[in-house]
Design goal:
Strand order of the largest sheet: 11-10-13-18-15-16
Number of strands: 31
CATH architecture of the largest domain: Sandwich
Radius of gyration: 21 Å
Number of domains: 3
Distance between the termini: 27 Å
Bound molecules: CU-O-CU linkage, copper (II) ion
Helix content: under 10%
Shape: globular
Low-confidence stretches: 5-16, 204-231
Mean pLDDT: 91
CATH class of the largest domain: Mainly Beta
């Protein structure tokens, strides 16, 4: 994902704010308003946590398979970053990649010039140079970080960012962070080659239900695939992805060589599940257990107990599990519509390890429904009418593999303007036959899901031809990307900017 190409009036200086408040100009990423917002977040004497990162080509061991890729500090996933809410995170990043890069701190309400969108919030960090990220971290929760340049996210460049809550009741005995990923780099074609074949119209998976093959790429299909048919309900529609990957990973390991988590019967475990994939929704279930979902995209919700959770790219869910018995249980992340899965093992006693193709019945059980999510009262926005409402069309053109968010009359993306303090309603209108996980930077919006108290999220699934309304409280000035978290859609144009003006 490179900088956003703005079209229309925006290209030559911003248009008047819609509604005619007079000629206003965009609030720049290091403007006085941004500094003032950071000052309000930064507590005097706040602890500064520092971690150095190096982005570089690396050979990593994906569960017994040596693979050349790009990684942070030589690991996939990269090193977990952990801070307490209210602390300051300081990360010197050395770029040893052959290309320019940046880091985006996905979900964090941070200062705009640390948000990591090249060309919008900072210049790209050139190969061989260094950049120091430093920002206050206001909200607890489960987040992650990744580059915002080209298709780099679809290599090994991603890692968890966990923000602990100093007031956490901590009603659990253990905690596991689970990163899900779809993998091709160094095994199949590189992400850049994948994008090229999609652009060349070789994306065979666009029409066939459950057949999201990587077009024109021989030998990919079935390498790790399973033979069972895809038969369950399809909340994402019939076209779940553009790319069939040779591997699906949980914490950097394929199902044939899974990570093992150990716990004792009766213990309560907090799962922090992160979909770091680029073109894959994962349906997650734990054999023999139910999941009590407590947080979405870092923010608390009224707990709901289900058998399975579906996560789009960029989404996170936290869930509590009480270990039922002594034994070995498969934690399976089914690659929705792709006939393959990632897996880990929960081991609480003796017993045979689950098979690599385990498909616990819970996968087909009660699935968490978007309409039943309710924000915890403490984080729900007060009821109020929006100051501005924007319809935001999501469009695609299969033949040329181009995608848009809020396409203007001249073909580029129109920014969505607001003034600090505004409450803005965005009506995401999917006019395509594919689902899109839509992500807004720098804010945790509230989804208007009909529950009267929809969840606070930063990434929301918009099913094919569906409409999802979200509300944003304009308390973090700057220029913020709004895009599809399918990395190939984003690279093919599916992004715009929520643009503060003043
Ligand atoms: Cu995780 Cu702009 O994205
Ligand atoms: Cu998309």
């Amino acid at each position: 994902m490179t900088g956003v190409a703005l079209g229309g009036a925006a290209a030559g200086g911003f248009a008047l704010l819609r509604g005619g408040d007079g000629a206003l100009s965009p609030v720049g990423p290091s403007s006085a308003a941004v500094i003032a917002a950071e000052r309000r977040r930064r507590l005097p004497g706040a602890t500064v946590r520092e971690l150095s990162l190096e982005a570089a080509p690396a050979t990593v061991d994906l569960g017994g398979r040596e693979v050349s890729t790009w990684a942070y500090n030589g690991m996939v996933p990269g090193p977990e970053v952990r801070v307490q809410a209210g602390e300051v995170l300081r990360v010197p990043l050395r770029n040893l990649l052959p290309d320019a890069t940046t880091i985006h701190w996905h979900g964090i309400a941070l200062r705009n010039d640390m948000d990591g969108v090249p060309g919008l919030t900072q210049p790209p960090i050139a190969s061989g140079t260094e950049f120091v990220y430093e920002f206050a971290v206001p909200d607890p929760g489960t987040y992650f970080f990744h580059p915002h340049s080209g298709t780099q996210l679809d290599r090994g460049l991603y890692a968890p960012l966990v923000v602990d809550d100093p007031a956490e009741p901590g009603a659990y005995d253990r905690e596991w962070t689970i990163l899900l990923d779809d993998w091709t780099d160094g095994v199949g074609p590189s992400p850049d080659e994948v994008l090229e074949s999609l652009r060349a119209g070789m994306a065979g998976g666009m029409e066939e239900p459950g057949e999201g093959e990587m077009g024109g790429t021989e030998g990919m299909e079935g390498m790790e695939g399973m033979e069972e048919p895809e038969e369950r309900s399809d909340p994402l529609g019939t076209d779940t992805g553009d790319v069939r990957y040779p591997l699906y990973l949980l914490n950097g390991r394929p199902p044939a060589d899974p990570a093992t988590f150990r716990a004792r019967p009766g213990e309560r475990i907090r799962l922090r599940i992160i979909n770091a994939g680029s073109d894959t929704a994962f349906r997650v279930a734990l054999g023999g257990h139910r999941l009590t979902v407590t947080h979405t995209d870092g923010f608390p919700m009224e707990p709901v107990t289900v058998d399975a959770i579906l996560l789009g790219m960029g989404e996170r869910y936290d869930a509590l599990v009480t270990v039922a018995d002594a034994g070995a249980f498969p934690l399976v992340a089914w690659a929705e519509g792709k006939r393959a899965s990632a897996m880990a093992v929960l081991r609480s006693g003796a017993g045979a390890a689950p098979m690599a193709d385990a498909r616990p019945a819970e996968l087909d059980g009660r699935l968490l429904r978007p309409t039943e999510l309710r924000a915890a009262a403490a984080v729900s926005f007060a009821a109020a009418e929006p100051d501005r409402t924007y319809p935001v069309p999501l469009e695609g053109e299969m033949a040329t593999y181009r995608w848009w968010v809020n396409r203007g009359s001249t073909g580029g993306a129109e920014p969505l303007e607001l003034v600090e303090g505004d409450r803005v309603r965005l009506i995401l209108e999917n006019r395509s036959m594919m689902w899109h996980p839509m992500h807004l930077h720098g804010h945790t919006f509230q989804v208007l899901n009909g529950s009267g108290q929809g969840p606070r999220k930063d990434t929301v699934i918009v099913p094919p031809m569906a409409r999802v309304a979200i509300e944003v409280v304009g308390d973090n000035p700057g220029q913020w990307a709004l895009h599809c978290h399918n990395i190939y859609h984003a690279e093919a144009g599916m992004q715009t900017v929520l643009s503060y003006v003043g």
